[in-house]
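Onboarding guide, step 5: your first structure request.
Type a short instruction followed by the sequence, for example:

Predict the 3D structure of this protein.
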Amino acid sequence: MREIKFRGKCLKSGIFVYGGYAEDVITAESIVAKVGIIPAGCYSIAVDPETVGQFTGLHDKNGKEVFDGDILNIVRLNGSSAATGEVEYKDGAWIVDEGVFIGFQIIGRCSPDILEVIGNVHETPDLMENKNEHG
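The system replies with structure tokens like these:
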């Protein structure tokens, strides 16, 4: 079964925090937040709602967890790049680059050997800008 967890960029520190998802929460700093992430055994941490992404259940070739909003490079067996794009959840599946299926919500998934997280749209948006300029 796939582990359900989220990540979001902390409003206070600007770093990503990982855990459960909560809405309209009161944090340890007594801040009422629209969205919060609750790490295991901790209080809710206020995060920027625009940065929240869900764990896909997949790991890349380096063992890194793949989240919604990550930028992936998908590599063919011969080592050439097949696609580079943002991970999104659409029509019951995790996709990259408007149609390259990397994992279904419940059934099937892509081999981690061909996936590599190279950034995310919140910290390295220039990776997507370069992709859009070149193809």
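Each response can be followed by summary notes, for example: The chain has two domains: 6-51, 54-134.
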